[in-house]
Specification:
98 residues, mainly alpha, 6 helices, single chain
Length: 98
């Protein structure tokens, strides 16, 4: 049964996703392997619960952030992608822009 605090009730979903991500972090997975893991395992966990309950937006956003960080992080030889704001990219090269 869902209690008063839905955010606390559904934290176990975030915990399960986080545990799966951490168990795969040490492995050097290709983008294809990461995509398969995300689609076949990580997205299934909240989908099952969402078929019965309405999950709060904050919980969905947190899970999405975890999936994005897992997808975009680098492997052993790669540091991943570093995102910069448009203001930083659009400035002059002398200042560090493109």
């Amino acid at each position: 049964m869902v209690g008063r605090s839905k955010k606390e009730t559904f934290t176990y979903i975030k915990d399960r996703v986080w545990k799966r991500i951490n168990s795969w972090r040490g492995r050097s997975l290709s983008k294809v392997e990461k995509e398969v893991m995300i689609k076949s395992v990580l997205q299934v966990i909240p989908s099952y619960v969402m078929s019965v309950y309405i999950i709060p937006d904050a919980t969905v956003n947190d899970i999405e952030k975890m999936l994005n960080s897992f997808w975009w992080e680098g492997g052993n030889n790669n540091k991943g992608i570093t995102w910069l704001s448009w203001e930083r990219l659009a400035c002059a090269k002398e200042i560090g822009g493109l």
